[in-house]
Amino acid sequence: MKNLFEPATVEEIKERMSHLRPDSERLWGKMNASQAVAHCTRGMELATGDRRPPRMPVGRVIGWIIKPIAFKESEPMRRNSPTVPELIVDDERDLAVEREQLNRIIDRFAAAGPEGCTSHPHSFFGKLTPEEWSAWMYKHLDHHLRQFGA
Hints:
Blueprint: H1 7-17, H2 33-48, H3 57-70, H4 95-112, H5 130-147
């Protein structure tokens, strides 16, 4: 599975992100491109440990059942997948600023490698290995880039 510990995958994500424009049309969901990029930065903050939301009750019950399905290599994240409430961005943002922040945290995550991953559990899936965090962050970024046709 692609992951953000692979330099070529990081470059792929950045290249795709460079195609986003403030007026990029979304194919699903409610966020505009700048909000989605800010949302992705918040997602990366989960993997680095900068953001540590509590476990969601529903995740404690079914997260372990959904995890193997969600982490299938051949399956992208589903459209309109639920999100951690703390990651929702609904105010207006500047795409250039948000893209730069996301690029910085992706670079920091990739450079730190597995040792830089949080040991804090994912709010829905629970405990993830560094490799799972890296793959999940790729899937999340891919999901939102596909949301805007990038």
